[in-house]
Write a structure and sequence with these properties.
The protein is of the alpha/beta class and 247 residues long. The protein has one domain (2-246). It is built from 7 helices and 8 strands; from the N terminus they run ββαααβαβαβββααβ. The chain has a 6-stranded mixed β-sheet. It has a two-stranded antiparallel ribbon with strand order 5-6. A hairpin with a 6-residue loop joins strand 5 (164-166) and strand 6. The radius of gyration is 18 Å and the shape is globular.
Length: 247
């Protein structure tokens, strides 16, 4: 699972009310296939828009400025085209978590609670064999953008040793340590990872669905995350039609 975030993980709701995480899961047997599809997509961007093949696709930076004399509405179109390319890759699945910071206690751990929820949904989906491909007894690893690596390592190690899961009745909990997610999360420089860049764009439009900026509203792009519907992990929760885990 490759993961990126959008929004501020701090408790200040003035800056951003929401903190969002999006993880893209691809089985190792499909890794080369996905990488090849993304490379072909990048070559098409170069041919059609003149967007350099090796230039990082970073949603916020791409919409704020461009060094390639590409009009802003075309840059938005590039991001939309990437979402449409991702939805064609039927063997991948996106799992997303949205933390609403409004009303949380001042000492609430937004970062930890959000990542812990995503890790648990990854574990649950692996455990129940609900990712596409019917891969029996699958295990998973996690790759993130180069952010807060040590905090994530400690979080995963703790969940592997002691992981209290509240009972559905609301009375007490069960200790179910993580077993299917192995190793510490590994960091990747997004500049060199088409996988992390894909998560960046997905996470950006996930956030925009909850707290859109004026340009996204003007261009009617608030619902762009929905374009990924065919490849969303609907097993993550039954409480949201797109499988978004809202906490």
């Amino acid at each position: 699972m490759y993961v990126d975030e959008s929004g501020d993980p701090g408790n200040n709701v003035v800056q951003t009310r929401y903190f969002c995480l999006t993880g893209m899961v691809v089985h190792e047997s499909r890794w080369r296939q996905f990488h090849g599809a993304m490379r072909e997509f990048r070559r098409n961007l170069k041919d059609v828009y003149g967007f350099p093949v090796r230039e990082e696709i970073h949603a916020v930076k791409l919409l704020r400025h461009s060094a390639f004399d590409i009009p802003k509405h075309i840059r938005l179109g590039i991001l939309r085209n990437l979402l449409d390319e991702l939805r064609k890759q039927e063997y991948v699945r996106f799992t997303s978590v949205v933390m609403d910071k409004l009303g949380k206690p001042a000492d609430f751990d937004v970062f930890g609670a959000s990542w812990r929820t995503l890790f648990q949904r990854f574990e649950n989906t692996l455990l129940n064999g609900n990712f596409p491909g019917s891969h029996a007894d699958s295990f998973g690893t996690i790759y993130t953008d180069a952010t807060s690596g040590e905090r994530l390592n400690k979080l995963m190690r703790k969940m592997s040793a002691f992981n209290p899961i509240p009972n559905q009745s609301g009375d007490g909990y069960r200790d179910i340590p993580v077993e299917r997610v192995i190793e510490d999360p590994s960091s990747r420089d997004s500049k060199h990872s088409l996988f992390i860049q894909s998560c960046d764009v997905a996470a950006y439009f996930l956030f925009q669905g909850f707290q859109p900026n004026s340009y996204i509203l003007k261009k009617g792009a608030r619902s762009y995350y929905r374009r990924l519907e065919p490849v969303l992990n609907l097993y993550a929760t039954r409480r949201n039609e797109l499988g978004i885990v809202c906490i």
